[in-house]
Write a structure and sequence with these properties.
Bound molecules: flavin-adenine dinucleotide
EC number: 1.-.-.-
Order of helices and strands: HHHHHHEEEEEEEEHHEEHHHHH
Protein name: Acyl-CoA dehydrogenase family protein
Number of strands: 10
Number of helices: 13
Organism: Muricoccus vinaceus
CATH architecture of the largest domain: Up-down Bundle
Cofactor: FAD
Pfam family, one: Acyl-CoA_dh_M
């Protein structure tokens, strides 16, 4: 692994992250999945290596790394354990980034150093039973009451809810219809009237503590309104960085692990008196997986660099996320097939790799919604091939 696209510092980050993840996270990845137990203890290891809240500036205790650097770290963590990568992404994902860019100075001083130390986890809650892709349909409401807001409503599919300390929650803050009435508030775990539900079981990422949230006359201070009604465009700008560093980077890491694992398996397994790796048909499947993976990494790295340079278009994150989501499903699916019955067995990691990436084409904007963005750029003349 010697990437000419990385400078010396980035290569060191990559190698350190890989060694750490292989030593500490891979050995317990299958157990976390089997027990549905978020591996929160891994955050201590990540924090010790300086890999929590990587983007957070030095004045708040962080290293102020670029989005690209975060992507390099996250890929290596996800190779070893996707659940750990998702937990990690909450320390430098949507909620911490929103606090840095949109929060008050007091919120920054209170929360950002804790994310860097791995002492606090943050969740992001948009989805509701009746509002998925259609964010403007959010019904959970926060009403002003003297110097506070009172929240009522229900959320669903909130990743890391069961272990998070702080939640960024999209709510209806005014009577204005559609997106004009939607904003966002910060809610701390333990606030009276705020309940975190039972674990919601999806196909994969079983150890991320996903749950629904209920708000019943939950009172928060007025300064916890982080995005006022009608200000969602500011939040979506922040989210583009998170869209790259979390979801598709986890897919890239898992796809890399699947390709490496399948390659080793084919070299080891013998049928018809020779190793499976000697069958040209199977070699070509490996070659296809490698081409797919390289294309995905190139798109993702390019998008991260463009966001860092302030030169990204709305297409960059959508193209990279959509391609890498679908690439990872193809690659992990082929890895299972190449390993035969063992590929489908829990004795090997291949079926977990497939399960862990499958939901990513739905999370953080479905691949259809991102195709809508790409098509809009094309049709409205902002992109030409
Ligand atoms: C692994 C995972 C993690 C998640 N984590 C979180 C989280 O932390 N916080 C959170 O708030 N939510 C989270 N979600 C929820 C996720 O954001 C929603 O599932 C997603 O936004 C889609 O909403 P929906 O499930 O209601 O589907 P719907 O919006 O009902 O869509 C159903 C289908 O219709 C398609 N569709 C809808 N509208 C259009 C359109 N205009 N054009 C074309 N096709 C369309 C969709 O692409 C999809 O295929 C997570 C989901 C998953 C799978």
């Amino acid at each position: 692994m010697r990437e000419p696209e990385l400078n010396d510092d980035q290569r060191l980050i990559q190698e350190t992250a890989r060694a750490m993840a292989e030593e500490h996270f891979r050995p317990c990845a299958a157990k976390a999945d089997r027990d549905y137990e978020p591996p929160v203890e891994n955050l201590r290891v990540l924090a010790e290596h300086g890999f929590c809240g990587t983007f957070i500036p030095e004045e708040y205790g962080g290293a102020g790394l670029s989005l690209f650097d975060t992507v390099v770290v996250m890929e290596q963590v996800a190779r070893a354990c996707a659940n750990t990568a998702i937990l990690l992404s909450t320390t430098d994902g949507a909620t911490p980034r929103s606090i840095l860019h949109l929060g008050t100075e007091e919120q920054k001083r209170r929360w950002l150093p804790r994310f860097v130390k791995g002492e606090a986890l943050a969740a992001w809650s948009m989805s509701e039973p009746e509002a998925g892709s259609d964010v403007a349909a959010v019904r959970t409401r926060a009403r002003k009451d003297s110097d506070s807001y009172v929240i009522d409503g229900a959320k669903t599919w909130c990743s890391c809810a069961q272990v998070a300390d702080l939640f960024l929650v999209l709510v209806r803050l005014s009577d204005d219809p559609g997106m004009r009435g939607v904003g966002a508030v910060l809610v701390e775990r333990g606030t009276p009237g705020f309940t975190i539900g039972n674990h919601l079981d999806l196909i994969g990422l079983r150890a991320t503590g996903m749950a629904g949230l209920t708000f019943d006359a939950c009172r928060i201070p007025a300064e916890n309104v982080i995005v006022p009604a009608g200000g969602m465009r500011h939040l979506f700008k922040v989210l583009d960085a998170d869209r790259i560093a979390g979801n598709p980077t986890v897919c890239l890491g898992v796809a890399g692990a699947a390709l490496d694992g399948a390659t080793a398996y084919l070299k080891d397994r013998r049928q018809f008196g020779k190793s499976l790796a000697e069958f040209q048909g199977l070699q070509w499947r490996l070659a296809d997986m490698a081409m797919d993976l390289e294309a995905g990494r190139a798109l993702l790295w390019r998008a991260a660099r463009r966001i860092d340079a302030g030169a990204a278009t709305p297409m960059d994150a959508s193209v990279a996320k959509t391609f890498v989501n679908e690439m990872s499903v193809r690659v992990t699916n082929t890895a299972m097939q190449l390993c035969g019955g063992y590929g489908l067995s829990e004795e090997f990691p291949f079926e977990r790799y497939f399960r862990d990436v499958r939901g990513m084409s739905v999370g953080y904007g479905t691949t259809e919604i991102h195709r809508n963005t790409i098509a809009r750029e094309l049709l409205e003349g902002r992109y030409a091939a």
